[in-house]
Amino acid sequence: MDFGAAMEMSCLQKRRSSSLPELPHCLKGTDVEIEIGEATTVSDPVDAQSIKRCFPLTCGQPLLHFVNSLSRTTISSQRKEKPAVKVGVVFAGRQSPGGHNVVCGLYDAMKSHNADSSLIGFCGGTTGLFAQSFLHITENVIATYRNQGGFGMLGRTVDQIRTTQQVNAALAACQSLNLNGLVIIGGVTSNTDAAQLAETFAEANCLTKVIGVPVTINGDLKNQFVEANVGFDTVSKVNSELVSNLCTDALSAEKYYYFIRLMGRRASHITLECALQSHPNMVILSEEVTASKLTLFDITKRICDAVQARANQDKYHGVILLPEGLIESIPEAYALLQDIHVLLKKGTQTDQISTNLSPWASALFESMPIFIKRQLLLSPESDESAQLSQIETEKILAQLVETEMEKRTQNGTYKGKKFNAICHFFGYQARGSLPSKFDCEYANALGNAAYHLISAGANGYMATVTNLKHDVSQWRAGGAPFTAMMTVQRILRGPGSALVGKPSIHPVAVDLKGKPYELLLRDSERFLMDDLYANPGPIQYKGPGCDKKTISLSVEDQDYMGRLKELYACLNKVKSIVKPGCSQEILKVALSSMTSMVDILSVMSPDTNNKHL
Amino acid sequence: MDFGAAMEMSCLQKRRSSSLPELPHCLKGTDVEIEIGEATTVSDPVDAQSIKRCFPLTCGQPLLHFVNSLSRTTISSQRKEKPAVKVGVVFAGRQSPGGHNVVCGLYDAMKSHNADSSLIGFCGGTTGLFAQSFLHITENVIATYRNQGGFGMLGRTVDQIRTTQQVNAALAACQSLNLNGLVIIGGVTSNTDAAQLAETFAEANCLTKVIGVPVTINGDLKNQFVEANVGFDTVSKVNSELVSNLCTDALSAEKYYYFIRLMGRRASHITLECALQSHPNMVILSEEVTASKLTLFDITKRICDAVQARANQDKYHGVILLPEGLIESIPEAYALLQDIHVLLKKGTQTDQISTNLSPWASALFESMPIFIKRQLLLSPESDESAQLSQIETEKILAQLVETEMEKRTQNGTYKGKKFNAICHFFGYQARGSLPSKFDCEYANALGNAAYHLISAGANGYMATVTNLKHDVSQWRAGGAPFTAMMTVQRILRGPGSALVGKPSIHPVAVDLKGKPYELLLRDSERFLMDDLYANPGPIQYKGPGCDKKTISLSVEDQDYMGRLKELYACLNKVKSIVKPGCSQEILKVALSSMTSMVDILSVMSPDTNNKHL
User: Fold this and answer.
1) Between A and B, how many CB-CB pairs are < 8 A?
2) CATH says B233-429+510-530 is which class?
3) What CATH class has A233-432+510-530?
4) What is the value of ipTM here, to two decimals?
5) Domain at A42-71+85-227+435-492: CATH code
6) pLDDT tens per residue across span A238-280
7) Each residue's pLDDT tens digit, A25-50
8) Closest C-alpha among B24, B42, B13, B36 to residue B147
9) Within 10 Å of residue A254's Cβ, how many Cβ atoms?
10) Can you tell me whether residue B490 is helix, strand or coil?
């Protein structure tokens, strides 16, 4: 592979490649200063203990914030040079639109602070890191890949830095290349691996600082420090457009139900966001199925009832969304998949699997159509999960619904026209998209932040950019220690006893108490019956609307750090003015400040996401 | 269904809905005049005879051109009123992006020439026409659907106006509703039906003038009068973006071959255009397969050889495009499908089909995977063709290639890594898209032209807008008789004898001698080996690039009428200045004009498309 090679570019690609993403005020120019924030702590004592044991050197570090020492209007044009650094960057996770801009932002920041700094990119993902196979990133490479999709600049292979051998190879690479920093671009798994690397490097007194950047289309690397992931905005928008196009098509043809499976294994954020943008008739989220312990039968019945209700209004078309992770959230399907994987691991031949399953599992397996059986028998992925992209859950459901509707027709409970389903899987076609303006800007800012973290000597941090709901100029940037984002999974083994896993950054599922889901619930009945399809259209780069963000981001309450700052500010103000014997006027001001604080606190009211506060 | 109902609109939809498409100069204002052109003739004597017999009243009519009697800069603001007309419009073909704008353009033109004119839209396609079920189209309806995708304003059902009963129902509707005009929106089939309707109406002395508009995503309604079809631009662009995204993804992951099937039954225009925009590694067009009589084995071998050549360069990824019509262009597969359809028609049960096939057909059938067998056994569509959207040809090919690569691995002729394929079908998700700027403007201009044809009392015409390569302002508009676009298919029955079919407007396949295909051929070797993937990105509505047209349109030589006009102009000029004893200067000017004429003539050099000239 010719990594970093010049590409054949379309008109739009060329235009995008020469467009410099705007930087937040706090990252502009060469007067960016670092402010040390509060030390991070983990409130759960068992988690805290376990994290401290595994990450003695990198846990408990403070939050870092970048501030621009100059006023907003007068960014200094005089360059303040910082020492030259040598940094390596690697795509550790799966490709995600905007990933290239992390590299571009990092490069720009390095060069603008010292022209002698050098950036190398490891080729073919972590494999390149282990083998010390890299590319010198030049202005030409940057110009070719700025604002472009995919991970083509450097490629990727396996996503892991896990085994002792892999960790040691990474250490050897960073030491022999004399790197000041290593930037790891990826999702939950890659950033957990990065945390381990940071700890190992610290232990080995290695000069290299390890910095992670949250890049994953899944949008499931979320916590009080991380509001969004690079790629989610683009992938949601591309998929929403396609879902909407099918809604339009369904409404024009009036004879098909479209069953659409979208990406999202462990969390259904993409499906939820697409539903909010496109308003399909029905959405089934893995999180709902898990929470309500719905069986295949329950889900089928729910869809059939909807089809029947619509038929009563003479509507024989519709659009139903589901995430690829759905199959694993259905209890009996999950159990079947686990049983199959155990047998496969034992070396059981695929044609012998069914007879070796428990009677109920075998019965469920045999009830599936042949093409699904073959998909269920696929070996699990490297992370032990099923090959979800290959299991056509949408076809299983469509078939079950068809059978049930025929049954209802025969027994006379359904008198409408024949039910027709067409199935779709929107997977890789969105992942390779040109990144949206938001993803370009967000990734670019994160790349800049990664540089400042390395320059400040921070190790074991994730670059963070927050306040994302607002205009780019007002975004905040900084870093948060990996360890502050970790939790420990407990697997219950009978009453009172639990097996405690390794501390990790875990994927965050859709919060069924969160505002985006609430928004969906609010309108679900109207969406189901009234065909309120909306089409966000193709991603735009110019003109009004090009700055539109995902609906999830717009309604989520995630600006914890911003809110904390506001609280501190309010509190300090009150403290500084209220004195014994102060005037009524002062008291009025204080009271008003306190009202604001109550408002802020009520927005931050406890939910599953802010247990660390 | 609530036809014409208000929609839930996204930001972009709202913006698009309030944006008025630009009109060509020749259609602006209320001073549009009609110029009667040459009478149309059919050069093939057998065709001519047959067409004259079937369409005695509507064949041989002249071409019509619209000209603006005012200069380009001073479009009169004073309205010249024309008599009020009552017009009906119907979506007869399959939904195609931009279709709504034909209605909008028609409405605008009607109202601007007389506020008392009224437009009705038949609901649910031709079914609505037969049943006289319609909607009064108001300013509100227009505002809701302007520049929007799908056919939701009026819906559609069956596409035909064929049987005597159907034709009579249409006649009764137009008579009882007292329509001055009926505008039929659709592709080759619908416009052939429209031609029949026009003839029948003329015979019945019916007041209603029948006008067709070329709207089909397939882009196969092409001839010397029609340069493009509404919807093709949008669908090609949406599909090209998705194909490009997969190319990006393939390059990032470096481990999969993507087999992508695109829409296009009888012609591969979409596949060709997507290949020109995205540069995938391989494209297989139905027209190539037909021309070279390639078997399934030949195609498989071709792909395997490509996979092997790429493996020699350590490349294990790639993207291969094919049209859904491919399966029918493969001789043995076509024969098998025909045999199956004959048996199905006879009432043979699906599980008895295989045993009733000829031995070779049965052998081919049995060699197919089960899921493909089921797809081959589907009943044919209303037009006797196979249900091509449901036959996963991409999966057949992927499986055949996989088997062959395994064989080559076993016999040692292939030493590379395992071949992995992932299959995609991009069908309906593009058809429902918001229309591109080009489709919005083109459809709008066609709608305007349809009004002027009706207003001029033309019957049996297709609205035409040409010179499309150039800026909208320079587009030409007019009408051409359906009969001038007809050909007669001959089915050879032994030497010298041929069965002559009914005159129809036939779909035009990709011209293997045409410029778009030539362009693909020129680069095919580089595309195959060098991964020159380009990504046109999402359709843009603002900023540079939003006026980009399809590559096919840009390189095709289709502006026959424009060229004829240029020729006339040159010739008249020469004739008017060259006199006996004229000066050397005049002769020089004349010579230069003649050089231009030679150039024009050489561009118009004979190919399959201009046999009528």
Assistant:
1) 206
2) alpha beta
3) alpha beta
4) 0.85
5) 3.40.50.450
6) 999 999 999 999 998 888 999 999 999 889 999 999 999 999 9
7) 999 998 899 989 878 877 778 888 89
8) B13
9) 18
10) strand
